Amino acid sequence: MSRFFASTTVTAAILLTVAAGCSGDDSRGEAAQVSATPRSCPAIADTPVQLAGGSFAMGEEDVYAEEGPVRQTTVAGFWIDPHEVTNRQFAEFVAATGYVTVAEKPVDPKQFQVPADQIPAHMLEPGSAVFTPPDFPSNNYADWWEYMPGANWKKPYGPDGADAVPNEPVVHLAWDDMIAYAKWRGGRIPTEAEWEYAASAGKRSTNVQPEEANSWQGAFPNHNAETDGFKGVAPVGCYKPNANGLYDMVGNVWEVTSDYFRPGHDPEDKVNPKGPSENAAYDPYNPGMASRTVKGGSYLCAPNYCQRYRPASRQGRDPGLGTSNVGFRLVYDSEPKA
Ligand SMILES: [Ca+2]
Ligand SMILES: [Ca+2]
């Protein structure tokens, strides 16, 4: 299977390919949040939710091969953020520390894995990968991912687009940015097992319905029917929480976990699993680096392209590059300070 059909994440190496065909694009910023159907998006508390430990059936075997085998998995208890980390929360961190994210700094040419003279100049400017939908049918990711200088968490649609909205999930972060935030906040990035346990909430993994999560209705990538109320990212908390009281675990933005990615689950690693070692990591779509595992799908997951609006869904994700459809939330090993 080609990456075109398999993935809605993106890597620096892929963007280098994309850049070769890039020209000016008047549609910049059009992926901004637009609500077709008014939805109630109540303000929800930031207070982490305590989950007792337990066992659950992790994975699925009838959708994508990388999600199996189903494995009875046990995790210890923890606390978890009730919603994706928001721009408001990330701004608190930046205000307190002066932190500058990876997407705001000059690009390290080494991440492209090609000679420096083969890298287009604009791709060495600070920036990030922005979903920029074509107005024609396509199954080629080069038609919808654009490396946009000046895109970062504060300007998620690029320098000419709207500012970050406080109660939307923060995006365009690299792994190091998320770790820095977690350390400051006193939490950590969840393991894949913790994340899936929290997302499953006692039920078997299955695709959720459009009214339950922000995904994509219609033929991706050019026809977005928006029947779930949002064309792009939604504020956190617009959809019903799961049985654990957690919002947007499935859909809205993919969420990064601490596990390195490799297709499939180790059937013997059943108690507080932490995923493969860095040396054992393998992302078939990105074999040159140790990808991290992302979970739950995003507003770009559509029935014709990415049936990953499920707790068990998983993909590898380049730790060095942010995108406009990947975020995160934290877990805590002891009760977080208010
Ligand atoms: Ca949507
Ligand atoms: Ca999510």
Automatic annotation (TrEMBL):
It holds the Pfam family FGE-sulfatase. Residues 264-286 are annotated as: Disordered. Residues 47-331 form the Sulfatase-modifying factor enzyme-like domain. It comes from the Bacteria. PANTHER family: FORMYLGLYCINE-GENERATING ENZYME (PTHR23150:SF19), SULFATASE MODIFYING FACTOR 1, 2 (PTHR23150). This is Formylglycine-generating enzyme family protein. It comes from Sphingopyxis jiangsuensis.
